[in-house]
Amino acid sequence: MPNHPSKPRNTIYTLGAALLLGILYAQAITSIPHLSMTSDEDLHVASGYSALRTGDLRLIEEHPELIKFWMTWPLLLSSQFPDPRQVPGWKSADLPFFVHSKEWRSIPLDSWVIPCRILIPLLALLLGAFLFRWASDWFGPRAGLFALALLAFDPNILAHATVATIDLGTTCFIFIAMYGLQRLLRWPSRANLIGAGIALGLALSAKISALILLPISIGLILGWGLARWRKLPAIRILAYLSIAGVTVWAVHRFEFGTPPEFSVPAPPFGLWHPQEEGKRTIDIQLSFPIPAPSYLRPFTKVGRHVLKDTSMTFLLGESFYGRRWYFFPVVFALKTPLPALILTVIALLFALLRPQQRWRELVLAILPVSYLGTSLLSSIYLGYRHLLPILPFMYLFIARLAGSRAGKDQPVKQRTFLRWSATLALVSLVIWQAISALQVWPFYLTFFNEIAGGPRNGYRYLADSNVDWGQGLKALGDYLEERGWNNVQTKLSSYTLFIRPARYGINATPLPPLVNAPSMLPTRFNPAPGTYIISASTLRGLQLQTTDPEMYNWFWHREPDDIVANAMLVYHVTERTPKPTWVAQCTTPVTPLETDQIEDGFGQSDLRVIGFDCATSWLYPTGGKSPGWFALSRDAPAWTQRYLGVMRLSYEQKRAGFSPPFRIYEDEGHASWPQGGQAHIAPSALALREAVATPPLELPVTFDSLTLLGYTLDRPTLKPGETTLLETIWRVESVPERLLSVMVHVLGPDGRVVAQGDGLGVPIESWQLGDVFVQRHSLTLPQAVSPGVYWIQTGVYWLDDGERWPARDQRATGDRALLVPLEIHP
């Protein structure tokens, strides 16, 4: 341990710590009034207030009540809150129904959210104070000040210090519990035993995830403490756990009774009982009274939440169900301040190259590693807040850099230079982190580092509490008022499902999933003109899982015109001019959309709907002279990308629902295709040698109702058994009444057909004058074909009698067009 500075210098560091704590508090407290209610705040507040008011813990759901008690006690000083026992949902212990009742919702939001929020920053101060103390104990007061500075300007800490939720409080008490444990391990005394036990009990009373402290604490005591606890180690461990248990019981107001039925995860391979094999949870019902029985109730809901794979998550542009082991590592990399990440890597290298006391490394690493490890196995992918307990340990780990004596073996001048250089680098990184935090004020929840492109780009990578938890409605109200858009012309969809935007002064047409909105976004393939404001989480479908999570996909493929509070995306949709007139659907392997889906999705009942086989053809309705849409199955042939590449993907449904997965592309009416080339026009009866000796004509050439505009050939040189692809391009001059086919033959030197690829992928009942289609012909040569020069011919014939269409061109007569020679090599 480094030598401690003199008393005056200690006073300076203490004053510096007090100043940093004040800055931390100022950042948090000034942000609170600017934030609208987030998704979980109402549940936490209602649960804590009801338990405090009545002494009845029936509304405990997923987590214990310690933090809820702490933040809701100011509500007891007001008479405007109802008696919980008179609110619907109380008797049935239904917390969501309780908090969404008119008795609770009729109270002004800020009057019950802000008083609870203002107590959370005090927990941030408590966390910062313990971090300063712990880092100072281990690495000296300069290191303590350095760690505290990083914490004071961490946007993720500040984000959860400004909302009435339990995540910051849990982080605080988990850190204090580990601080108490390490003191107990180093200096086993009665006072430290009692302090460590109480700290563990408080952490366990904050959140179910704090249960990870039990195996960690017992493991550290057994693995390291026994070497020092020579007297009565088992009794000391029992006392430590007993003090924690009594603390939990005290937080639960010394409740005593028979617990409700609860569930725990089932062991694998039927180890619990043969009859339980295959079950994911084990239901347990105790028939005898125990202390704090309500503490067991959250296990059922949390256990089922952890085990289920039905929650939808958005990550890196993809919405998915189930597990992705890399979710939390990616979240950590994108939302942790970049200076902190850089310092963590440097500190890790420093620890590996210059290891100090091994027990310190163990204490520092065991909880973050265990916490991150359990998060990788979880299916609850809600946000960075689940990683929050890692941060103070990370900053404690980094603190060693400020406490080290760089260059102690170097000459004095060089040592001084190295120390000043190191100090300057550390201060610069702290300033960088401070600037990052101040730039995102007051919307710390939306922070993303430079790897993600900053806070305004966070919605591209993540959703939910990582960027949009419903906190931006106040800012949106101000935004609309400043621009005079606060009227029915604005269409709004928000993540805060049960909070009417009007409560924040927003007058807008509600969109799903808001109350009084339709169940589906009207004309979701072609939204009507207007100003759309969609919160980031709703954009990704997180509140739309029971209807259609992809209903806002049209907006995924457009850049927002503006972003409010880094979480509310503004889109100005204008009338399309000229108006689209058609929808062309590829029928291979399936037809994507039914008629009613087309009318509802595009909002036009007069659209021309065309089906064609995109495995063998492509269609340009009206010859590319008017805009429209192409709809294709996501399993459509890959070659279609040749034509779709010049268009804009406007909608994509990745999941099977009312229709198979599909994509919609917008064609602005500027399509182009290969045109031109030459062809020998000749009668079928004319010998091949004589036919190809006639002067070639420049295309186009008309055959009755179709005009050959051009063609492409991918391989003019082949070997026997190989395949070449020919595409012929045709324009409709009139719609015939009989079935027909496009002919393509490979002719040998003697004029005989050696391969053919006839077909028609666009049925004639879909044709209109001016349409252009591409017919794709696959030509495979026989293995026994002889080397030489062969020719490809095309034309059109009636299917019923095989009669070929004559060419209608003044330049030549005939019923076939000889296009291009093929060279066949051995």
Layout of helices and strands, plus pairs?
Elements (H helix, E strand, L loop, with lengths): L6 H25 L9 H14 L11 H7 L22 H5 L2 H4 L3 H9 L2 H20 L1 H12 L2 H6 L6 H20 L3 H15 L8 H11 L9 H19 L4 E2 L4 E4 L15 E4 L5 E2 L5 H11 L4 E4 L2 E4 L5 H9 L2 H16 L4 H20 L12 H9 L1 H4 L8 H29 L32 H11 L6 E4 L15 E2 L19 E6 H4 L13 H4 L5 E3 L3 E6 L8 E5 L8 H8 L5 E5 L4 E4 L7 E6 L7 H4 L3 E6 L8 E6 L10 E5 L5 H4 L5 E2 L2 E3 L2 E8 L3 E2 L4 E10 L7 E8 L5 E4 L15 E9 L7 E11 L17 E9 L2
Parallel strand pairs: 7-8, 7-9, 12-13, 12-15, 22-28
Antiparallel strand pairs: 1-4, 2-3, 5-6, 9-11, 10-11, 14-26, 15-17, 16-17, 18-19, 18-28, 20-21, 21-23, 23-26, 24-25, 24-27, 27-28
Helix pairs in contact: 1-7, 1-8, 2-3, 7-8, 7-10, 7-18, 8-18, 8-20, 10-11, 10-12, 11-13, 16-18, 16-20, 17-18
Could you explain the architecture of this structure?
By secondary structure, the protein is of the alpha+beta class. Among the domains are: 35-118, no CATH class; 455-573, no CATH class; 582-667, no CATH class; 678-824, Sandwich (Immunoglobulin-like), CATH 2.60.40.770. It has 26 helices and 28 strands. The strands form seven sheets. Strands 18, 19, 22, 24, 25, 27 and 28 form a seven-stranded mixed β-sheet that branches. The protein has a five-stranded mixed β-sheet with strand order 8-7-9-11-10. A hairpin with a 5-residue loop joins strand 24 and strand 25. Helix 1 runs antiparallel to helix 7 and helix 7 (120-139) runs parallel beside helix 18 (390-398). It is elongated, with a radius of gyration of 36 Å. The N and C termini lie far apart (83 Å). Mean pLDDT is 88; it is low at 1-5 and 268-279.
